[in-house]
């Protein structure tokens, strides 16, 4: 039975009903073909559901629990954003000041980027994340110091384009403004005040706690991902380790204006600023600081080699849902959203404009981001997109968007200036 049907059967009569969540989670586990999954529900100032399903490792068959650590991928970004916002509240940096004012290693136009642009993915930076590399605290500074202006594919502020590299730079700003290594700075700014005692960026700390192993699928078999991916130069982009129970501490705080355990641990202004719609995406959505923003709903998902995560919450309803999974490419977002909708009655916005009347000839062209290229051709009024030697037909869906999650941003003449696929944009080159 589909997850949505399981949940809708009981919508009118329950809030965090364990039996209903159990059935939905088990269905999701089967659909995703994941070894393990954790589902957490926060309502008001308490956790009303916290449970693991499946196993932490296909080798040991150890049952996964809400205390097992997972690497959460890009859900990390909201913690990076909140850390920078706390530093800004303390006068340690300005979100609108050139990053070069703090990072002397930046050169040329990179020095003119701002924390605001980095946190909203509007800096014009290419997307890059290296999964393997250094493991020490010097790697983040070395990573940023080695950047050249050619990592900019668009003018700052010109287009929304998701960039893990931008968040690595934001992490370096945290280091300099706090005068601490990145991992220690976020721990002191967030993890310690929130009581997230096991949450860390350091693999050598994570391995001392129960750890859900990341998995990949290879030749039809699910196996432990070896070696585990790690590059400390990209920790801020998506490398936080946390458990369901630790993540719940953050969830309680953000749905209650920064309060937990009867104490104010985060400034309400930090949370308000984080969840304001600071950037409009080419598909018509809104992005805050490390958060996707909709009316009364905030969320972010994450994917990391071997893992996936999703967090969706509503301060208005004072409720949130966290889902964690330990299989590469498995998306626990649908489960999180269905549980959330059933508890709160809120659904993500589906209001979309009718397809715009666009001239196919003005959309055809070659688009690039750094060394990645996408070609769009106009064949008798039918658009076709070729990327990685694979061609697909583009059919209008809404606004300036088409199938394959493709949207076009037009210049004043109606000619496409950018193509966005998913959340990453490519600049027109001809």
Question: What's the overall geometry?
Answer: globular
When the domains are counted, the total is 2
CATH homologous superfamily heading of the largest domain: DD-peptidase/beta-lactamase superfamily
Instruction: Give the CATH architecture of the largest domain.
Output: 3-Layer(aba) Sandwich
Structural class by sheet pairing and helices: alpha+beta
What does this structure look like?
This protein has helices spanning 3-9, 18-32, 77-89, 115-119, 139-145, 164-178, 182-194, 203-206, 235-238, 244-255, 268-274, 333-344, and strands at residues 36-43, 46-54, 69-71, 215-218, 221-224, 241-243, 259-260, 263-264, 279-280, 286-287, 292-294, 297-304, 307-314, 319-325, 365-369, 372-379, 382-387, 390-394, 396-398, 401-402, 406-410, 416-421, 424-428. The strands form five sheets. Strands 18-17-16-15-23-22-21-20-19 form a nine-stranded antiparallel beta sheet, with no helix packed on it. Strands 2-1-14-13-12-11-10-9 form an eight-stranded antiparallel beta sheet, with helices on both faces. A two-stranded antiparallel ribbon has the order 3-6. Helix 1 (3-9) runs antiparallel to helix 2, helix 1 (3-9) runs parallel beside helix 12 (333-344) and helix 3 (77-89) packs parallel to helix 6. The protein is α+β, with helices and mostly antiparallel strands and 430 residues long. The radius of gyration is 21 Å and the shape is globular. It folds into two domains: 1-351, Beta-lactamase; 360-428. The model is unreliable at 1-14 (pLDDT under 50). The longest helix is centred in the first third of the chain and has 15 residues, at 18-32. The chain starts with a helix and ends with a strand.
């Amino acid at each position: 039975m589909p997850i949505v049907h399981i949940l809708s059967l009981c919508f009118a009569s329950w809030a965090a009903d364990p039996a209903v969540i159990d059935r939905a989670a088990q269905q999701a586990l089967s659909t995703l073909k994941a070894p393990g999954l954790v589902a957490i529900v926060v309502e008001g100032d308490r956790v009303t559901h916290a449970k693991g399903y499946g196993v932490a490792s296909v080798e040991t068959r150890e049952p996964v629990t809400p205390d097992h650590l997972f690497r959460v991928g890009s859900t990390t970004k909201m913690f990076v954003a909140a850390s920078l916002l706390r530093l800004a509240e303390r006068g340690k940096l300005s979100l609108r000041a050139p990053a070069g004012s703090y990072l002397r290693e930046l050169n040329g136009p990179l020095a003119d980027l701002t924390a605001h642009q980095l946190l909203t993915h509007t800096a014009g930076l290419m997307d890059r994340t290296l999964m393997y590399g250094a493991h020490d605290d010097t790697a983040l500074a070395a990573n940023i110091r080695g950047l050249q202006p050619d990592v900019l594919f668009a003018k700052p502020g010109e287009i929304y384009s998701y960039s893990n590299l931008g968040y690595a730079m934001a992490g370096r700003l945290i280091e300099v403004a706090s005068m601490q290594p990145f991992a220690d700075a976020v721990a002191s700014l967030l993890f310690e005040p929130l009581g997230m005692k096991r949450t860390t960026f350091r693999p050598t700390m994570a391995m001392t706690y129960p750890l859900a192993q990341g998995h990949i699928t290879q030749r039809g078999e699910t196996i432990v991902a070896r070696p585990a991916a790690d590059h400390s130069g990209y920790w801020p982009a998506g490398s936080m380790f946390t458990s369901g129970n630790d993540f719940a501490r953050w969830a309680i705080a953000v749905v209650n204006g920064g309060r937990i355990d009867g104490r104010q641990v985060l400034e309400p202004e930090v949370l308000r600023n984080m969840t304001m719609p600071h950037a409009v995406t080419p598909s018509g959505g809104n992005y805050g600081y490390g958060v996707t923003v909709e009316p009364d709903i905030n969320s972010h998902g994450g994917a990391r080699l071997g893992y996936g995560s999703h967090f969706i919450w509503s301060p208005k309803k004072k409720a949130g849902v966290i889902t964690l999974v330990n299989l590469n490419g498995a998306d626990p977002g649908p489960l999180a959203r269905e549980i959330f909708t059933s508890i709160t009655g809120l659904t993500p916005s589906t209001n979309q404009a009718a397809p715009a009347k666009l001239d196919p000839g003005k959309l055809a062209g070659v688009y690039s981001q750094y060394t990645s290229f996408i070609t769009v051709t106009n064949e008798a009024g039918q658009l076709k997109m070729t990327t990685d030697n694979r061609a697909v037909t583009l059919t209008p869906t809404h606004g300036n968007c088409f199938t394959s999650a493709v949207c076009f941003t037009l210049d004043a003449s109606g000619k496409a200036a950018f193509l966005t696929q998913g959340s990453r944009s490519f600049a027109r080159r001809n």
